[in-house]
Every structure is written in C-alpha cells, then in structure tokens.
Amino acid sequence: MSLEPPIQTQHQRRGSIQADGRRQKVRVADVAGRFTTWRRRAFVLLIAVYALAPLVKVGGQPLILIDLVRRRFYLFGQTFNAQDAWLLFFLVAGGVIGIFVITAIWGRLWCGWACPQTVFLEGVFRPIERWLEGSKQAQLRLAKEPLRGRKLRILATKHALYLGAAVLVSNIFISYFVSYADLRRWIFESPGEHWGAFVWMAAITGALYGNFAWFREQTCLLLCPYGRLQSALTDDDSLVIGYDERRGEPRGGVHQAGAGDCIDCLRCVEVCPTAIDIREGLQMECIGCANCIDACDDIMTRLGRPTGLVRYDSLAGLEGAARRRWLRPRVYLYLVVLALLAGGFSVAAAGRRPFEATLIRQTGAPYALENGYYQNLYQVHLVNKTPRRSQFELRAILPEGAEAVLPIASVELDSLDDQRLPLIVRVPQASYRGGFTVQVETRDLGSEAVVRSQLDFIGP
Ligand code: SF4
Ligand code: SF4
Fold first, then answer.
1. What is the model's pLDDT at position 5?
2. How far apart are CA 16 and CA 26, in angstroms?
3. Which pTM does this prediction carry?
4. Is the pLDDT of residue 351 over 50?
5. pLDDT (tens digit, 9 = 90+) per residue, 35-84?
6. Pocket probe mutation, ligand 2, options 35, 110, 292, 311, max atoms within 8 Å of Cβ
7. Across 11-17, average pLDDT
8. How many whole angstroms from 301 Cα to the centroid of ligand 1?
9. Percentage of the chain surpassing pLDDT 70?
10. How far is CA 154 from each of CA 123, 150, 204, 210, rounded to the nearest angstrom?
C-alpha cells in the first residue's frame, strides 16, 4: 500500500448521502486491529446470547419470554401476568436512563459494540458479502460487470444467504414473544394453520432483509433517534472517537517538511461504514465503530510513529486537557434517577403478592330476595402468579347471621392460570339490619401466603 497522499478533488463530499440527496452506496475496506478483533468477539458473544436466551430455563420457566398469546411474561425465573405490566415502567425507564449514563460516560459505545443493527450487520451480513464478493476493490470491479454468469451466481448466493439469515434472526426474535414449543410447532406445521404468525414472521424477515441487504447505515443515519440525541446526551468529557488535530495538522506527505502526523492517506475514510471523515470532527454519522482507529494505528505503526492519532478520548482530551472528568453533574443526576427507579422497582417487586384473589360482584341486580333470604352473588378471581402449580383454599369471613355458599373452596392452579370461583352470601330477611362487609380469605397451601379481599353486602 502506498503511504503517499492520494490525488483528491477539492472538498470532496464525504458520507453516504450526496449533495443532491441521492444515496451513495458505501463499500467498506477491510480493516484489522485490536478493536476489530475485540468487536468480533463481542459480536459472537452477543449473537450467542441472543440465540440461546429463549432456550435457557430458570426454575423450570424461560429466562426471558414475553408471551403475548397468553398475556404473561417471564424474566429471570420470575413470572408476571398482565396485571403486573406496570412494573415494566421501571424496567423501560431504567433502561433508558441506563443508556443516558452509558452515553454520558462512554459516548456511542453501544452503537459500535452492542446495537443489534451493528452486531448483525458487521457480525453476519457484511462477512457474507465479504466472503462472496471479496475486498472493497473486488466489489467495485464486480459492480461494473454485466449481470450474468459469475456475477449473477454470486449475487443469487449472497441474497439467498441474506434471506436465510434474516429468517433465522426473525424466528429467534419471535421466540421471545411466543413459547419455544409453540414456535417449533408453527415452523413444522403448514403456514395455512397459523396465518397470523406466518405473516408476522414474513414481515419481520422482510424488514430485516431490506435493512441488512440494502438500507444498512441509513437506518442509523435516518431512522434511529439515538444518534440524533447524542449532542444532548454527551459533553466535552464524554468518551468519543476523535482525531488529534494538534498532532495531525497540517496534513502532508510522509517526508514533507513541517507536516503533521496525518499523511492524508484516507484509510480512516475507506474503512468507515458511514463513509465520513473523522478528521472533520465529531459527527452525528459516527457510530463509534473504531474502524478508523485500527486503520490509522496501522498506518502510524508502518511509519514508525506513535499510534493514537485517531483514538478513544474526550473532546477535552483531544484539545489537550490533562485529565478527563468521569463524574460530572449530569452523570450524578442520571445516577440518582437510576437509583430511584431501581429502588422503586425493588419495593414494587418485593410487595408483589404471589397470587391475586379479588372479590368481585357478579353482573346483574345487586341483590335478590329468595325464599326469605336477601342474597348477593360474587366471584373470587384467583390468579396463581407463582412459577409453580399451587393449591389454594378459600373461606368467607362474615358477621353473625350471614351465611356463605362457596361451592369450590379448594382449587389447584398451574403457574399464571386463573379461575373465577362463585360465592353466594345470604342473610335471612327477618334478621337483616343493613349492609356489612364480606371478606374472603385465600391461602396458598404451598407458601402459606394469605390474601384477604372484601366487598360490601348490599340489601334494600
Ligand atoms: S488520520 Fe490516519 S488514516 Fe486518516 S488520513 Fe490521516 S494518517 Fe491516514
Ligand atoms: S468515523 Fe470512525 S468510528 Fe465513526 S463510524 Fe466512521 S470509522 Fe467508525
């Protein structure tokens, strides 16, 4: 590789969108280095976690399953039903604030190392392309060939593999929302028997295929709101990938007198998946992939100069500040909010009862007079929220003179199953002296937990 600066048109436009708004296809040159190696390891690990998490069981229940069909969800051995959905507020808000903290300290580390868009594009789809079409130069040559023979075979194979990968990723995604057993059955049975599920799978597959085969970096640039929030979430002390202008400028040839360390070789641009020039400063299009660090470190090593002309640093550090401030007012603020949410979630989760037993009035007339008795009809709505099958016993607690008819006083329920049990309360007309409180005590025989619920008795 020549280390002399390339001939360049004056102020060539960088990026994947041309001045007139048209898309410019980005072809990324190969790069090697410590960050590339560590990112590949991270991608393998994250894809393995993604694929295996729905299969892992904790205490007989899925590690993560948001079962939309049965309206129940499982998280790390805990079972939740639709009534617990409010707890998701803490998880979602905690996740958002957690990302704020990470962004304030480490900038776009998430985008470059862990975002599913990056993980699947750089860990699966781009390697397929690289394997079939070769290096950037080979890809450019192939693009100029007529669409027949070798090119047709390569493109057909590439898109078939893309489609296969998209089907796989979409099925794994669906397995977070339907039980693995259901999904397996749907896969092996005719689509005609599960039209709804099939259409969902086809839609997700189509979206993934379109995204990874064609839209690619445009998702980060045009669709993802996170990139646009960067300027609000980061400051001069956040970790970014930047170019050391004080060291690199003025750019010039290797042996040019008075030139800085940047030899204007454009390797950092060649390897950039969004085709920007890191030397133009921090840009919204930078997804923090660190390709330009590895590319420039390689050039510096070949020249026998210190690495780090492009590096992870804060904007303050790139401008010469001696120390980077990790903890700043905004980080403290985010951490306080995060601690409050974590505390709120702990209190809410600890106060969560292992089962629900709610006394509700049956629809219809509030009371009736039958055979000389005033009577009210109720139901006890019992929901087993424990992760195991449990047996429950019910008893009514009433004032003297009132009677309860509880046809099913003992019931066994599977985890997250529910049942409505009828209850009739009656009082002789002659001794009725006004309304009173009806209490039902439900006991879980496994944990000995007790839930009492109450409602008024209504008479004339
Ligand atoms: S910053 Fe490094 S990789 Fe980029 S043009 Fe300058 S020397 Fe080349
Ligand atoms: S500028 Fe560097 S870190 Fe940012 S996207 Fe391009 S190659 Fe990746």
1. 46
2. 6
3. 0.83
4. yes
5. 999 999 999 999 999 999 999 988 788 899 988 887 888 888 788 887 78
6. 292
7. 66
8. 12
9. 97
10. 20, 6, 25, 18
Q: d(Cα 313, Cα 311) in Å, to the nearest integer?
A: 6
Ligand nearest to the CA of 26: 2
Q: What is the band of 454 on the pLDDT scale with cuts at 50, 70, 90?
A: very high
Q: Where are the domains of the chain?
A: 34-232, 233-318, 355-457
Q: What is the mean pLDDT of residues 427-434?
A: 91
Angle between helices 88-106 and 225-233 (to 10 degrees): 60
Residue nearest to atom 8 of ligand 2 (CA): 289
Ligand 2 centroid – CA 291 distance (Å): 6
* CA 277 to ligand 2 centroid distance, Å: 8
How far is the centre of ligand 1, averaged over its atoms, from the C-alpha of 5 (Å)? 10
Nearest CA to ligand 1 atom 2: 296
Burial of 60 (0-12, 13-18, 19+ CB in 10 A): exposed
- Of 111, 230, 272, the one to substitute when testing ligand 2's pocket (max ligand atoms within 8 A of C-beta) is 272
Contact in structure between 44 and 123 (CB atoms under 8 Å): yes
Confidence band (pLDDT; 50, 70, 90) for 357? very high
Mutate to test the pocket of ligand 2, among 27, 30, 286 (most ligand atoms within 8 A of CB): 286
Whether ligand 2 lies within 6 angstroms of the CB of 107 is answered as no
Beta bridge partners of 314: 239
Higher pLDDT, 307 or 417: 307
* Closest ligand 1 atom number to CA of residue 264: 5
Domain covering 355-457, topology: Immunoglobulin-like (2.60.40)
Taking CA atoms only, the protein residue closest to ligand 2 atom 4 is 286
Q: Residues 6 or more apart from 52 whose CB is under 8 A from it? A: none
